[in-house]
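Q: My collaborator sent me two sequences in one message, no labels, and asked for predicted structures for both. Can we handle them in order? The first one she listed is below.
A: Yes, handling them in the order given. First sequence, followed by its structure tokens:
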Amino acid sequence: MTVMQAFLDNSYLYGGNAEFVEGLYESWLGNPESVGEEWRRYFERLQQSDSGQTRDIPHAPIRESFIQCTRDPAAANHLLVCSPFLELERKQVKVLQLINAYRFLGVRHANVDPIKRFERPRVPQLELAYYGLGEADLATLFDTGSLVGLDRASLAEILAMLQETYCGTFGAEYMYISDIAQKRWLQAQIEGCRARPNLPPAQKKHVLGRVTAAETLEKYLHTRFVGQKRFSLEGSESLIPLLDHLVELSGARGVQEVVLGMAHRGRLNVLVNIIGKMPRDLFNEFEGIHSHHDHITTGDVKYHQGFSSDVATSGGPVHVTLAFNPSHLEIINPVVEGSVRARQHRRGDLLGEQVIPVLIHGDAAFAGQGVVMETLNMSQTRGFGTGGTVHVVVNNQIGFTTSDARDTRSSLYCTDVAKMVEAPVFHVNGDDPEAVLLAAQIAFDFRMTFKKDVVIDMMCMRRLGHNEQDEPAVTQPLMYKKIAQHPGTRRIYAERLAAEGVVSAEEAQQMIVDHTETLDAGEQLRCKPVLSNFKRAFATDWKKFTNANWNQPAHTAVPVPDLQRLAEKLTTVPDNFKLHPRVEKILADRRLMGEGKLPLDWGMAENLAYAALLENGYGVRISGQDSGRGTFFHRHAVLHDQKREKWDAGEYVPLQHIADKQPPFLVIDSVLSEAAVLGFEYGYSTAEPEQLVIWEGQFGDFANGAQVVIDQFICAGETKWGRLCGLVMMLPHGYEGQGPEHSSARLERYLQLCAEYNMQVCVPSTPAQMFHMLRRQMLRPYRKPLIIMSPKSMLRRKESVSSLDDLANGVFQPLIPEQEKLNPKAVRRVIACSGKVYYDLLAARSARDIKDIAILRVEQIYPFPHEEFAAEMKRYAKAQEIMWVQEEPKNQGAWYTIEHYLRQHMKPGQTLSYSSRKSSAAPAVGYMAEHVEQQEALVDAALG
């Protein structure tokens, strides 16, 4: 239903019409046929939206009866006769309200805390007296409304069912969901089994084996590698049967891949007991023995490592991947989502049926880290949705060293942030592994049915400190007294199964012995085998991208006839598609550019690069907060019909119509987020090397909000974990007097992070350079992140244009030589620069008729083009001075990085100098007059 339709459906609900509408409602309650069809439909919908699902009764007769009581003794006597029936009706309504209260608030009384730190709060709405009910009513029969499993029962039976369902070791929050179908589905799942799973004995024994494996591994590591950090899972062992069950459910449902993301707590246990990492390999890492690869130069600690394997399930093999993760607790969330989206795309899995994400969180981090909210916010968007995520919160109730909720969050539950996307939340006691499996089952089925996020809040404890060298009792003495007295999940469950006759105490103990012997042998503890020779469909081969050289040539040129054909497609719109006049003029100009009658601007060259890549078989994905149109009104990859809304065929994307069969082109006007979106695109690019993946900052400084992704993933992912990626970051950069925040993309930060050929930093100065650079990024067998300081005012600078011939016969030039025909022997100064300042220098040099200063453009600052620069220095061997010129302040920009490169190529007697703005704490000034003065001064210094 559209917003307008909803308005029209309710447009008669004005305050002035209230008496009229109430009268109609009363008539409908007495006789539905007494009102018109439109009103009948409206009142029926009104009844359906009632959360108690009870049919209202006419109010007027009741009011009239009470009025008559005060006037007529006979009427009063009649009311006394009828009052038992009215009282029963009143109690019926109250019983339905009680049922609803348990659905809303029963979780407050749920037995979900294994260490029972606090008494359950008093919730009056869960008490009979709150509704005027008491023991005398317990035997009375009532209708149960929508309560699943009971149509009519005594109040005692209803109360017992509600307490069993909503106040046991499984507690649910879902009544805030606005979709009635989702709520009814959840009620059927939870109330249908009274929140108690019915596992066969064999499965119970399997669950005990998984819990035993988890506990045994932790205790084994604790005694064999004393004092070493491992971020133990002890106290949270039920995570292992939970994940084991999710993998099994996935296989049964036809899921092909499960991608896990988690921080360090319990990671080693998941690696061994879920994904099948060999314990001997883990032990080697504890002992400092690592298997090195050529492209892993630094490596990472063992509890940040990722792993993947093909796991056998009853439904077939499932590829399970645990993403590599830095210490930044929740930043892995969007990275996993991006990786999942890429895998889904590769399989054509548009609904998210074949690849699913599972994210494991800590309680304090889930509530405290903003990227959690950002990732949730993306979950149902077109450009970033993955068909829903299963979130598992390992809630050990302590965060880092704090266990007081006043210090960790401002909400009642750590999971309350998930309610923003109406994700159901299941709170479950980690000491009841069967309840944990029920939560996993319902969560998985909900995700697969409704393609939405769902949260499992597994309440547990942390037996040891934050790490194994920490003493938590110093700050949490009472909590850790309780934990010290706790027997452990494995023992509790083993004793329960022994009482049920499922296993004997001796069998349970033998499981520990067997697992210990397996660990002694360095073998796997898994019950599900890992398939070592399984060949996966849709697997990606990255081998061709390893050990490649950045300057390996790539044929990026495109013949003129092909460019003209692509230009025609880019400028053709459907019939009756009304463009905005400004956009119509831009497309008209682009048609002339395609015909060679106008020089190419930046927007046209960029679109031609994408079109040519699509014809070469490479998909393109661009995301940013204004990427469809382009922040600077330059891209116009998405065209908008001025007569129709977007969702009503009002958008047209020419790049999606380059060929009958072509790879996808997707440009996304993203959510207003940097950290999560950039993390998503990084994850996507690490899983899909055959797509050009671009994240564009609306302004270059917007990347500041995503610095953790840049520092911990983009610049170091290869050297730490061997993860290649070809992600492109477009960061608008240039000093146009727009103040401190919208001038600089912080070029210096990226250059400071450059080493070991980990990424590329480029500052293109012509449309042709952008064209060849984007094509080079895909056509070379080379996948490294590319940071582009992209233009702003230069987009429309008349000197900054290119020709079709530049695209048809050129290549990307890491360094562009002097373009004027100067006498090399007469050149006394060689200026090297990047970006927009080149055109300011060029204009000033021309105006002053200077013939003895050459200007070189360094288009790729890292890796620095040493060969090309050396050739230019040889050409200008008579020059006495080399100067670097930049718009940025001296302590920013490229100077402190490039100084060392320039010195390598200087000859004896030559001097090195610079011209820039003076060192500054801010990236730029905020006053236009001062900006102009500074710009003129640095140009004068360069040419003086």
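Q: And the one she listed second?
A: Here it is, processed independently of the first:
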Amino acid sequence: MGLVLILAEKPSQARAYADAFQKTAKKDGYIVVTDHRYFQDHAIITWGFGHLVELVKPGDYKKEWGKWRLDNLPILPDHFKFDVPRDKKKQFNIVKNLLNQADEIIVATDADREGENIARSIIRHAGAEHKPTKRLWINSLEVAEIQKGFKNLKPGHQYLSIYEEAQSRQIADWLVGMNASPLYSLLLQKKGISAAFSIGRVQTPTLYMIYTRQQEINNFKPEPFFELYADVNVQNGVFKARYKERFTKKEDVQALLVKHGLQEQENGHITKLTKELKQTKSPKLHSLSTLQSKANKRWKYSPSSVLQTVQRLYEKKLLTYPRTDANYITNSEFAYLKGHLSAYQSVANVSFEVAYPAARKRYVDSSKVQEHYAIIPTKTVPSQKTLAGLNAKEKNIYFEVLLNTIAMFAPDYQYEETNVEADVKGIVFQASGKIEKVKGWKSLFLHEHEDKEKEQEPKLPAMREGEPALVKPAIKEDVTKPPRPYTEGQLINMMKTCGRAIEDEDAQQILKDIEGIGTEATRASIIETLKNREYIAIKKNKVEVTKKGEILCQSVEGNLLSKPEMTAQWEKFLRLIGEGKKTKEVFLKNINKFICHLIEQTPSQLASISIEHNIEEAQNEKMIGACPSCKKGYIVDKGKFYGCSGYQNGCRFTLPKLFLGKKISKTNLKKLLSAQKTNLIKGFKSKSGKTFNAYLQLKDGKIEMDFGNKN
């Protein structure tokens, strides 16, 4: 067989693979494996750090492309170059040397399109694409799953088309970003804003959808409405009931009361009483997005932090692969979950009688599992010591997945729903209530608070049809409410379901098939990008568009860049590339046409819109405080540091964003500029790695530490 090289995506993944083999030896940048169950001779595991190979910057093609100038656009290379970032060159050279020695390569990066792109880009850049390859395709880093995967390796050539698909998407995104970002930035700077704007196929329509919701809120005009309620008094108690229609004028309600001759108190009777036993099944298994939404709603965790947490639990072999869009598992996973059920119950400290020992389509459906199955616990049942070693966020996420998974074995939640109608002089008032009968799977989630509306669900007194009732009608006035701002968790769902709001049926269907814009792996990072670019701000878990974000949205309004349809058009073609029916070259040729059209049309489009007022507000929003050096300019956010707005007039005063490993917040910076001293800042790191707390003070234009009362 010769030398077999196993290419992992990152060091933690490589270490997990090594744990599955009999004898290993750690070297610099790789691990030597000896295990004759799998390899005739020894094998070597090596790794990247995610993308070891990246697309080069425009200036590496042409020197003039390195500068943002309108006359340098469009940036459309004839062919695309890849290179290794400086901080990753050492590891790449190790991998390249090993690839060139190898007789066979096992691609063992993450089992998805991006994992394939990462591996093939490294192999191609190292000049080893002619070598035979096999593919490891697994969803868990448990020893048993890894061993099973290495015994069932797939032919590597079967996955080349999804590499072409992923790289086509990567290059197209680069082309849009490298052309649209300077185009809009330079044109908007001509209008007076001193900021750079980042444009992206996914991030820009995501921002625009948030902006649209904010506009709906800002432009919302409350309108009064009136409802007719009644207190209905029967033999065993009193309950509140409502007339089904809503009125826009109080006079209309009063006219209804006059028409039927209703006074302050009237005799009526119960005309209808129905009771129905209902039941609900446990929630579907978690995909990454449902887990992100649940964790954000319950603990206010950001989608990005949820992904990072699930990734750590995956690497600790407690949860399965995190970047999955599936809510289903196969019969294989169901079998081991069922086999470990009592152990899982013990870990979660819950007990229930198994109501569903057999697999059900709601949870187990191989036809709906593509690259990855749902996020579930692995076969590794954690000990109390292991659980004690998890931080609070890891425990919360682990137990959420664990309980959500074992709930599919638990009884249904059952309740009795009662609907009642009371007639008084021909006006029918309605009420409903429910009585819990069997808590079922909900007993696993007793620690969660029910929605306020459900908590306030009325309990109706016992009554019978035909029973007389004393009815006291009352008019209630209220106003319509604006839509609520999105939470971070809702942004994930918004990105997944954005196709519903599109009129074009083809685009709508494509976005439904691909589950919206972005992927399970990228949606969280898109939201982080919007925050880092200062397009949105999160306040009490509510998402707000900043003035800078508003300016960009007004600039791309009506443009394909603001619409999810652009992704739909791309994905339709990209899927055909993945199926081997279309080529990357034709796809990129169409992207080039779009970019040329964008560059031609945008100047006149931006010239026709009036955004000067927002630009002025955005400029004021950026001003943090007066410059202590020149006394004329203002300190503004320059991206990687804070600096004076009077730079062009000669003021070179700057302040760092990061000081001794700690980010200086704008709140503390304002205090530093106005009072010459910040609040106490915790978590500075010394050169020796020790953490400490201190105040920062400004003396003669320089930052100094102030330890306050040393006692």
